[in-house]
Amino acid sequence: MSRKDFIKRSAIAATGLVLSPGIASAVVPSGEIKTPGNGKLGFKNVRLETGFEYDANGEVIGTKTGLFCIETEKGQITGILPNNPGLEAIDAGGYLMLPSFKDMHIHLDKTYYGDKWQAVRKRSGGIKGMIALEQQILPDMLKNSTYKAEKIIALLQSKGTSFARSHVNIEPTSKLQSLRNLQLALENRKDTFGAELVAFPQHGVFYTDTVPYLKEAARAGIDFIGSLDPFNVDGNIEKTVDFTVQLALDYDKGIDIHLHESGESGLKTIEHLVAKVNENPVLKGKTYLSHCFALGKMEEPKLEEIALKLADAEIGIVSTIPFGSIVMPIPALLKHKVRVMAGNDSIVDHWNTFGTGSVLEKANLAAQLYGFSTELQLSRMLGLATANVLPLTDNGVQQWPQKGDKADFVFVDATCSAEAVARISPVMSLVYNSNIVF
Fold this sequence. Notes:
Blueprint: H1 3-13, E1 40-54, E2 60-73, E3 76-82, E4 90-91, E5 96-99, E6 101-106, H2 126-141, H3 145-158, E7 161-169, H4 177-188, E8 194-200, H5 211-218, E9 224-228, H6 230-234, H7 237-250, E10 254-259, H8 263-279, E11 287-291, H9 300-313, E12 315-319, H10 330-335, E13 340-342, H11 359-369, H12 375-381, H13 383-386, E14 409-412, H14 417-423, E15 427-432, E16 435-436
Parallel strand pairs: 1-4, 6-7, 7-8, 8-9, 9-10, 10-11, 11-12, 12-13
Antiparallel strand pairs: 1-2, 2-3, 5-14, 14-15, 15-16
């Protein structure tokens, strides 16, 4: 082999993928960038979905796929070409390429993950009891929160996630330290992971004196203004929602409100937020309700009414797909074109003992919960893991990937997206911004 060919092959091998037989034979630790020196990545034997298969009655009974070559450069997909097995490129081994996963509700700033194991303690006093607990334990948690945030990011990458919307504590106990520690972790990982941040007043906007810290956070690089259970925590729906909306308007931010309240206070919070967004159309498409468990307690006629209002105001719902007494009405929301996204929320912290880091698992849980077991239904549930980016339209027309799309994708050991959701198929590799990061 010539010296030139040796160097070329060595550069490709450095990616952690291989020329042959496939990407499973080498592992790239999460967060390590592996890209040839010319800034380009080429893949062959990439499996892409091309359409649906139908029976005589028009029911989708399978998914068509084909093998392709994919070229990327400078963070974009630059070529989607007929497969050429003899091409000198990274061999994807026939693994299925899907849009990379996005965790749209997580708390990267506070966790036990990467530290000493701790299960959830017995709770008392409801949400205000948990606030009191946090005021006690946050100073210790902050001591190594940057390190733990990076460990969670590596976990997410190993599950195929390249992007997260992270809520970050803003309150008088940690002030802006939780934000600064997380921003440092994200800066350390900026070439391998993307994120947007929500200033989250976990201890209430007015229940504790958090207003000045929220205003400071709005000037410190966050993307969304949050709040928490305006009635149960702050005791005043209008005051809290109006403050949140005005702060978002003043600093050109989005809104993402934690709403665990059900019953009358939950409904009133939803309706007041809808009214405020309609008064300020600039917030349409930039406003979200996280959890929003009140929807799971509504009778059908009221649910239909509220879903239509949410869709008209372009307010999205971010769900953690909970099992238990509250079953979120995701099918009804999707029917009315409400944007629904999913996240892991807490991963091994004082709120939740569990959490694998996989949003593909969340899509699987939703499919089980709502009885979505057909090929078409399973393929649609993939959108919960990808923030609604799907390879095929409902009619089976290929819409992803396209030339010019972001070079953020994941290879999974599956023949189609329906199988990937149903089996929570293993993630073989993750590409972010044209770089192999897992």
